[in-house]
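User: Can you help me understand a structure? I only have the sequence.
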Amino acid sequence: MQVIQNPSASDAEAYTPATDEQKYVALCQVNKADAFDYRERRHEEWTESYQFYRDKVTINRLTQRQSVNVPLMKYTIKTLLKDIDDPPMLYFYNRSNNSQKEVFYNEYWKYCAKEDKLVVKDLVDKKQVLLFGRSFKKLNIVNGRFSFEIVDPQDMLVHRQTDPTNLDSADFIAQEHIFKSLSALKENAFYDQDEVDKLREYYASSQGLIKADQNRRSLEDKNRRMEVIGLVTAANPQFGETVVELNENYMKVWAEGLKRRVIMFVVMAEGKFVLAKKPLHEVIGKTSDDYWMDHFPFTTWGEDPERTDFWCDGVADGIRTLNKILNSWISQLVENRTLRNFGMQFYNSKAQEGYMPQSYEPVPFGFYPTPGNPNEIIKRIEVGDLGDSIDEIKLVLDIADKTSGASATSRGDIQAQKVTLGEIQLALSNAKERVKGMAPMYTASWEEFGTKYTKMLEAAGSEYIDAVRIWKKGKETSKMYYADISPDTWQDQEGYSCEVVDLTQASGEVSDQIQKLTFAASLMPNNKPLMDIRKQKAIEWAGLNSTQIKDIMDAERANERSNTPGQPGFGMGGAAGMGGGGGNLPTRPALTA
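Assistant: Let's start by predicting it. Here is the structure, written out as tokens:
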């Protein structure tokens, strides 16, 4: 049984949101198995990449005899993260141009971003993309507040026919490995309590946590990443009470009553108990455009997207094989040095009857007796020097730098050869251009996140979102003031639009603009509009918000008027700047995370 792609009239009659739970069980099982097989080919690669990043290796008798790991994966990822570690700036515009509602709306976002540790989660999001090629963000309303989480890609299943550039094009996605205690399921009114009782009876008749073959295989692949770093109980965690693994399934089905496809939300336990089954737009809530009928509460992005493969490569995929080679060679160098240091010897056992060489403690200028010619009786075991492999190791490191864009210069290393300052700047510029290549996907992901955020708040409303108290310091005072913000203070019929600025990319662009404006100003030194633009760009680059920028530019204009002949206040000690300035400066509230 497959999800219907283009339902006809007969399809609609045969496939309606029926009450038959087994139909949904079978549908989820078939789609999960297909999506798992589609993702499974990446499991071993993800595990190896994570293993190298965590400085763990598996020794063997042939190529990796020593427990040695070159931290190539670690410093490549960390170098790239250094250049993209700024969080995104999201700002939401009120489409009705109601500035007060806009202020409340953005203050609520800043509150949620702080509570959800946006800066830290954003770093985890980027690291997952660099290591595994994909990362997911999940949006939700939890305990009366908007919340989001970064989801491990090995917890996500995606239909193989999904457009890699648009997760909402999928016919089926699922999140695995959601662990809940039986008591928590019993207390949650959203779940079918009859099914929860059946689940309790199921565990009462079984020993421990029993999983379907599909779930067990998937969990073992996920836990292997933890086992390689030393967590031996990852596959068999010890809990104080019975813990159930849930799967949240999102599938597009034909709804006869609506004459369209909708997303059905199905929560299953152990692959056979349907704890919840409801259209997603009824779970999240209704919007003016029925947004949640065909959009998932997830966003995803990858830094190297492909048209034919949703599970695209990450930076780690280009480094992993090189890391293996380096580990093998360094392991051999370590063993070679150890063997050479042993000073092992062959001896002729037939040279003299009864002769058995003995070991001597090494002493300076020591002489050690042998019966006869020692060259005929004893021969030192020669272990060849592998020092010439250092050049080959440097070659591999150079390939890794070119593959990832994390050059030695961008890591802060000083090159031995003589180079000019211009050459260093050019190398840094080229490295940053490689890093900037992921900015379009990253920014588009957060823009989609912002849109889904607005739709989730619109759907939830005051029924599911609690009011929060926001404290702020006065503009020209040290006193603190507060406002109680709730959906009633920002709800608007026209809704909100989201703007996203990648701080890393924006900072580089502004710096480049300032350099170009400086050159233009040298050609037109008396062009006042050009000078004003250059000044404004310079103070924007300093990280000031729009209010501070406006105050500075107002003061600058007032200062210019006080020094201009024929203007009020020029040379007369007048009130410079009174009654003018700043009114024509286009400003907007500060973009902030």
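Now, to help you interpret it: The longest strand covers residues 243-255. The first helix runs from residue 9 to 14. Let me know which part you'd like to focus on.
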